[in-house]
Amino acid sequence: MLRKLLSYKTPQNLILLIDIMALCLLYFYKESFDEFILISGIFLTFIIYISNFILLRTSSGDHYIFLIMTMLISIGIIMIYRINPFYGFRQITWFGVGITTFFLFYAVIKKIKKWEDWTKTYMILSFILFLSTLVFGVKIKGATNWIKVGNIGFQPAELIKIIFIFFLASYYSKKEKIMNTYGLIGIVYTYIGFLFIQRDLGTAMIFYFIFMTIFYIFENNRKLIYYNIIGAFFIALVSYFVVNHVQIRVVTWLDPWKYIDNKGYQITQSLFAIASGGFFGTGIGLGYPEFIPEVHNDFIFSAICEEMGIFGGIGVIMLFLILVYRGFKIALYQQNLFFKIVAIGMTTLLGLQAFIIIGGVIKMIPLTGVTLPFVSYGGSSLISSFAALGILQVASEEMDPSQEEDNG
Amino acid sequence: MFHLLSLIFRYLFIFVIYLFIFAIIRLIYLDIKGMTQVKEARPYLKLINRKEQLPFKVKEVYTIEKTVTIGRKKENDIIINDPYISNQHVKIISDEGSFFVEDIDSANGTYLNGDRIIDVVELKSGDRIRLGQIEFLFIEE
Fold first, then answer.
1. Assigned domain for A316 exists
2. How would residue A175 be classed by pLDDT, with cut points 50, 70 and 90?
3. Helix, strand, or coil here: A401?
4. Which SS3 state, helix, strand or coil, does residue B44 take?
5. With bands split at pLDDT 50, 70 and 90, how would you rate the model's confidence at A60?
């Protein structure tokens, strides 16, 4: 039994094993044990196993990306539960919603044809969402990027990311463009401008990089690419001098120790946490990750490094690497141009988001607040990551020839 | 109790995570290896036309393992949705290591190196097979 469970030939069993181990461990955590955790833990393990099984049966495409995602989710939930059991339960609920979103997006994207024809719709939809964020937005942690409906808040930017990729894909997969390249660049920079107004710098960076990746691969006018890179440098410089927010991030990146008591507190605590972990970590529940503000959210990676050690951290990075590798592989094999671009976009989205936040918390690049996909706590980000993965799953399958015919 | 358990489990967790990564990489490796092997061992048809210029779906390479039929209908082994290709257009027969091409009464005919095929013809490596709007190169190593 154990041998079969440990066999590397069936990675699903390894996820099952890690979940069971975590359940055993958390059973003893904090003396006061309630049955609720047992039920939700078993529930979680059950969903992971079943959905892996369903996917294996229904999808002819790639099966690795889903497996990798469930591993990341498992690590994330263990960590979040350990930091704050209440958030842990919430995260399990969000995971259930996320899996539903995954299959929903998978089914809808696959069922409906002609996604490439709606360039204008994507554009208008994004503008509506941006404007509504500006009008109804609530300021949380320095960024006005939340809309609150009753008790439930959500980040429109997470949804716009996906629409944005669809917009770029539909623009480049059509032979008759609805506007010239300058129009496209204008629209992209308007989006980034909106994000700047909301002070959501991390998302602005993601938008820019996704745009540049797709632009670099598919634009025929090569000169424009260089102009764009120069333009970006210019914007970065100007924003450093004009926007106070940016300046703080850069200053604390260059020397956080000088501001350890205020601005640089978060990043220095993160560095302390990573350093105290060592190779194998302090062991789950034995470290002090709660010293870092926002540890369940943006700084989850530092908590993983502290309690699971640098090996655990490298493991997470490697999981993201394989995910990105699979994503590019999917894009290379996809025949349909629209889904090729979508696959590249989704892969860049997930990979870059991971890079930006992991690089941020280890002080490799200036810190910008984005979530670590699948690992961080947070409903909006988790659901949008699941949606991205669902779309990637569709892109990994061979498209129906009849659809291809309609394009021509 | 929890303390001790956690200290042991930290090694276990890392071990299982790395085992998982190893498992995934192994599966991916087997996938890639399987693909290249097929390409090396079997004869295949290579598309000569530029794929982007064709208004229908066609692959760059088709490997031939056994006898295959090409046509527009779903029953064929290789389905190509070219309007100039018949429902059942051509058959490539594998017989003891040699390959033969046979036109199955197609409307527009099949051409081997420019000549229309009337009977069964044996294929050599480097032969060009034209049907409908597309042209394949037959390669046998």
1. yes
2. confident
3. helix
4. strand
5. confident
B28 with A326: Cβ contact below 8 A:
yes
Tens digit of pLDDT for each residue in B46-98?
A: 888 776 677 777 777 888 877 888 888 888 888 888 888 888 888 888 887 78
How high is the ipTM of this complex? 0.82
Digit-coded pLDDT (tens) for A364-393: 998 887 889 999 988 888 999 999 999 999
Nearest CB to B16: which of A10, A17, A322? A17
Instruction: Give me the phi and psi of A370, to 5 degrees please.
Output: -125, 165
**In which order are the strands placed within the sheet that holds B121-122?**
B78-79, B68-71, B90-95, B98-103, B121-122
Q: How far is A396 from chain B (nearest CA, A)?
A: 14
Q: What's the rounded Cα separation, in Å, for the pair A113 and A314?
A: 40
Is pLDDT above 50 for A289? yes
Under the banding of pLDDT at 50, 70 and 90, the label for residue B31 is confident
Q: Beta-carbon neighbour count of residue A22 at 10 Å?
A: 24
pLDDT higher than 80, residue A404 = no
**Structural domain includes residue A408:** no
A404/B56 Cβ within 8 A:
yes
pLDDT at A290 over 80: yes
**A173 within a domain of the structure (yes/no):** yes
- Per the structure, the complete domain to which residue A134 belongs is given by 2-396
CA B101 to the chain's CA centroid: 17
Q: Bigger pLDDT: B34 or B76? A: B76
Q: What is the 3-state secondary structure (H, E, C) of chain A?
A: CHHHHHCCCCHHHHHHHHHHHHHHHHHCCCCCCCHHHHHHHHHHHHHHHHHHHHHHHHCCCCCHHHHHHHHHHHHHHHHHHHHCHHHHHHHHHHHHHHHHHHHHHHHHHHHCCCHHHCHHHHHHHHHHHHHHHHHHEEEECCEEEEEEECCEEECHHHHHHHHHHHHHHHHHHCCCCCCCHHHHHHHHHHHHHHHHHCCCHHHHHHHHHHHHHHHHHHCCCHHHHHHHHHHHHHHHHHHHHHCHHHHHHHHHHHCHHHHCCCCCHHHHHHHHHHHHHCCCCCCCCCCCHHHCCCCCCCCHHHHHHHHHHHHHHHHHHHHHHHHHHHHHHHHHHCCCHHHHHHHHHHHHHHHHHHHHHHHHHCCCCCCCCCCCCCCCCCHHHHHHHHHHHHHHHHHCCCCCHHHHHHHC
Q: Report the residue from A6, A64, A308 with minimal CB separation from B13.
A: A308
Residue of B6, B19, B32, B84 to mutate, interface with A, max A Cβ within 10 Å: B6
Do B56 and A326 lie within an 8 Å CB cutoff? Answer: no
The pLDDT, as a whole number, for residue B118 is: 82
Interchain pair A401, B6: CB under 8 A: no
Residues in A touching B27 (Cβ below 8 Å): 11, 64
Q: Which of A347, A66, A103 is nearest to B27 (CA)?
A: A66
Asked if residue A40 is part of any domain, the answer here is yes
Q: How many domains does chain A have?
A: 1
